[in-house]
Amino acid sequence: MRRLHSLIQLCFFVAVALCALPAPQAWADKPAPEEKKKDTGDTKPDDAKSEDADKDDEDKKEEKKDVYFAVTGATVHTLGRGDLYDATVLVKNGRIAEMGRGVVIPEDTGTLDASGYHIYPGLVAVRGGNIIGGGSADETTDVYSLWMTIALASGITTAVSGETAVALTFGTVEDMVVKRDLFVSLRYSTTNPKQRRKVREGFEKVRQYMRDLQAFNEKKKLDPEAEEPDKEWLTGDYEKYYKLLKHETVAKVSANSAHEINQFCELAERYGIRLVIDGALEGWTVARRMARAGVSAILTIRPPLFSTDTGEDQRLNRATGRSIENAAILHKHGVPIAIVPATASITSWGLAGRDLLHLNMEAAFAVRGGLPEEAALRSITIDAAQILGIDHRVGSLEIGKDGNFMITDGDPLHYMTHVRWTVVNGRLVYDKQKDSLYSHIRPNGDRDAPPPDDYWPRRLGDGQ
Amino acid sequence: MRYTLCSIAIALVALSPVRGGVDEDFVVIKAGRVITVSGEEFSPGVVVIEDGKISAVGGDLEYPSSAKVIRAPHETVMPGLIHPRSRFGLGKYTRSGVQGDKHVTDEIDLSQMRFDDLLEAGFVAVAFVPSGTAIPGIAATYRTAGPDDSRLLDENSYLHVVPKWRSGGRKMLGGALKKAKDEIEKVKKAREEWDKKQKEKAEKEAAEDNEEDAGEDADDDSGDESYKDDDDSDSDEVDDSDSDADPDQAEEKKEEKFEPPKIDPKHQPLVDLIQKKDGTRMMVAITRASDLLHFDAVMEPYEDLSYSLYLATSRSSDYHLAVDKLGEREATVVLRPWTHYMPYTTFRYNLMNRLSQAGCSVAVTPMGDSRDELLRLRSRLADLLRTGLSREAALKAMTLNAAKAIGLDDKLGSLEKDKFADLTFFDGDPLDPHSKVTRVMILGEIVWKKDKKLAGRN
What we know:
The complex is a heterodimer of chains A (464) and B (458). By secondary structure, chain A is α/β, with parallel strands linked by helices. Chain A contains 14 helices and 17 strands. In chain A, the strands form 3 sheets. In chain A, strands 1, 2, 3, 4, 5, 15, 16 and 17 form an 8-stranded mixed β-sheet that branches. A 5-stranded parallel β-sheet of chain A has the order 10-11-12-13-14, sandwiched between helices. Chain A has a 4-stranded mixed β-sheet with strand order 6-7-8-9, with helices on both faces. Chain A is globular, with a radius of gyration of 26 Å. Chain B is globular and about 90 Å long. Chain B is α/β, with parallel strands linked by helices. Chain B folds into 3 domains: 1-80 and 413-458, Roll (Urease, subunit C, domain 1); 82-179 and 265-412, Metal-dependent hydrolases (TIM Barrel), CATH 3.20.20.140; 198-257, no CATH class. Chain A binds chain B through residues 133-136, 139-146, 171-174, and chain B through 165-171, 288-290, 293-294, 297, 318, 321, 343-344.
């Protein structure tokens, strides 16, 4: 009897396993709407009407043909869904359609053979600097600029300017916007008690309104003539607070000292709002507090030195000031972190490795301070996207997300790794061998390749 | 045979004792060479001008014996040069925002301006633009000389659009076009509403007429009309409250009197542009290839708006990336005679040549409005010939395509029948840097001469 039972159990497992085999399909959170339509069209009986409908569908398809792009043979690091070896990533109309082995590539698909290379999600620059335009970046960006090319060469595919996150769509302005109105700003200065009281009173007032509204909604069920609470005053700052209290938006605030951070943590805790603390130099000293308040942080691992010209900041230049362990300690306590370099743009002094050209190096320095490698990588991809509220589109490789990824010749946190190709919205936008930027350095990822003719400086014993 | 006829005619003219026998309406130019720009070249050539307009061009033509003949056996005649985008002699000021109600004509006082530099460089027409960014106003084209009443060629040449593409320019242009579209909708809606009300009223009245049979007092109320004089279509409710017979009168009156809601004058030119009113166009300045993409994104909802593009010159301009896109749509582009640099390099490329080969109508505008630059225009073009620009394209860029860019290609820019006889004479080839302008003709009359010796020959 028991044996029979186990046999049935075994059968059950096999059945489950069989069901689970077409794994890549199962990953899709939502099946693409086009595919659904197709299915229903096929199952319809072949009478004249449906034929007409099919014709119409065909006409529509001719108007806007599906665009595919496939990368084959690479190791896909999905960040969150494990690694896939020798896998294919198929992008349809700018969104990832399928990943894994045995993916059927449609005809006339642009295909890139990336055997031996690694696919990572494109990096997210929480600050965009000069790689994109100011204001609403989708309207002001120079999509042919050298800065954008350099950013793509360092693996960045999403950048933020002001309150807009855009994809670095080199050569086109279509489908640039990832999200508008990322943050609201909140002033809550430690040195201005009047202002702080005003902010708190504002929150109290809006919270009272929300309670009234809830009460009204309950009352309405019994008494249809109940009076709705007045909401004409709910504009400006109040509207901002309302959105924050309803968790519709996130406030980005600038705070570096432990005292400032504590103030913001208290505010976040009291009203249950979502805060992103930009800077957080001394965050490591109050990591537990930050974790408890549920705030997240945007960090610079090698923060700029304060110039004596502009006045040295005595509060931070002390034993409890900056620490290379900042990111590691915050991560250990469960504070979500995003990492940006000291100079959030492409600069000539960035050659020293502190600008967006070296976003990955900044994260690598956090590893030096004790942050696990995966967390470091996540802090410039999916965690950064999460803090910006755009993780449904970018930051990791998942079916349905944007086809934004970098194809590298190694671990992105390694100092020797170069980005070989960058893909944004399913378009190949950077090719190391075709751009003069790095094409001469270790061509085709061959780390032992002989130096090119104009190698400089020449080493002793090069034998000329 | 024809030749003898001509010579007889000329002889007759010469012999005629009374000076008044010369018909001033007919002017004939007998030049060493005639460049038509739109067609072949004649060497020697004859241009016959009637009433200030070209009536025939050819190698050897008949013309009335009474015609006035201008002999230029050592000169080359071609259509006068056109400056499509100038601030020559105008003051400096800054203006921003959408200012479609501003006209450059308000700045120009011909009695205070001297056009000698332009004439010396061979220009017959110049399009003045209002200064500023965003949409600073409407450009106008003037002749460089001629009778006062003929100086203003076109007071609405184009809407001058200079968006700041790197900071909100796209938003500005998109917003302005949207506003213009809204204005059109507003008028349309008012019209529809008015029509609807009229229809309802007509129906109601028809019903009433049936009830009242002969309409007893319909005619009696005619005296009430005066009371309605000031009321526009908005006052329909007043009509309803009136006596039964009155609407009849009021309706008839209003049908003539429908006044559309007023359109914002600042956006009026854009409204005209969207409605494809005759002669409306805009010239949009871009500064790099990326701006074209943003411009296209703005223009997407609006079909076939008439525009030309001004490609501003800068050290790092990357227009080579936009050549194919511009060629595909056969765009009319205005640019300076300049070999552009590939961005961040010292490699140069002949943008004008690439654009004209891609299929664009390329017009040239001088590097600046100083006398030196005006005079140097032809030699700069000659420089571009060395790196591949065709002679034909260079000649067109100065004349026909420049006229096209300002919407005057049906009147100026080539030697064709019925175009204005606004011509320039050179003492050599116009694309030879050493040649000089010898005379300028406007509406069939010589208005400028290089020296008195030549003047004596006429």
